[in-house]
Amino acid sequence: MDSTFTRRGFLKSSLAAGIMAQMRLRAAETEAHNGIPYRLLGSTGERVSAIGVGGFHIGLKPTEDEAIRIVRTALDSGINFLDNCWDYNGGNSEVRMGKALRDGYRDKAFLMSKIDGHTKAGAARQIDESLQRLQTDHLDLMQFHEVIRPGDPETIFGAGGSFEAMIEAQKAGKVRHIGFTGHKSPDIHLHMLEVARARDFHFDTVQMPLNVMDAHFNSFGQKVVPVAVQEKIGILGMKPLGSGWILKSQTVEPIDCLHYAMSLPTSVVITGCDSLDILEQALKAARTFRPLEPSQVADLLAKTAPVAMAGKFEGYKTTQTFDGTVQHPEWLL
After folding, report:
1. Using one digit for the tens of pLDDT, what is the confidence trace for 33-87?
2. pLDDT in tens, 130-141
3. Quick one: how far is CA 20 from the chain centroid?
4. Is residue 72 left, alpha or beta, with left meaning phi > 0 and alpha meaning psi from -120 to 50?
5. Among candidate residues 54, 125, 123, 130, the one with its CA nearest the CA of residue 86
6. Residue 3: pLDDT over 70
7. Residue 24: what pLDDT?
């Protein structure tokens, strides 16, 4: 996408047609909690808040007490979707979230975490460790994390792979729904869905970066979202602000980024909240949300197009900076 991209050109483009077709699929929210819209999670029958709290950030910047306040304030304010992962901050993110979910708060949450292990034994161990840290007997959703290598799907679904552990955990009541996540390539996501389909397995959710930069470069929104919609898989949008990289482009505001991702057929948009102020920003985005009009989408994408070339502000696609399992291959065992 070159710098000649314009608002008028967008409205006439095939990119526009694809994005606007997706946005027309954004079903009107029929339920809200404390002003926060709720949406169906694919074909699971579950209803989740349109904004979710990311687990990575609560284990990073805030103190433990502040992290607990962030989680509890989110739940008290109407958000119910909580994201986490076995590897976030050496497990500290799950430990802090587990403490926040005491005193009846677990009942308010749709709790998700992720595992890295590709072997049956490693995955089973990580599932149990996540449950222990989160102080719960079950996860509402557990996902295979960082499906970022072309061969990951075959390894996960292969003999003695992590899929076997996940299914056993589901049968034991430790895991209710199963999904996967990745940030590297939409083609790898599509391959994961193909491998699952060949084994007669239907994922409940798929998580991917969805933002105003993704629309221009190696786009998950253009390639994966239509397939997920067709197969009634719950779409979890992540990196709506590109882990802060998008804001460094100085082209768009945080609320615009969140509203764009929420206007796609996402069940939930997961955003990192490392302070109560940032949580309030997310709550405001949810409470003021109205699906974007075509002209608004055109304005946002015209602003971001000149700087979106080659994934300049999507380092998770183009570098290994965000690839935890590349930096720590032992997590895959």
Report:
1. 999 999 999 999 999 999 999 999 999 989 999 999 999 999 999 999 999 999 9
2. 999 999 999 999
3. 21
4. alpha
5. 130
6. no
7. 64
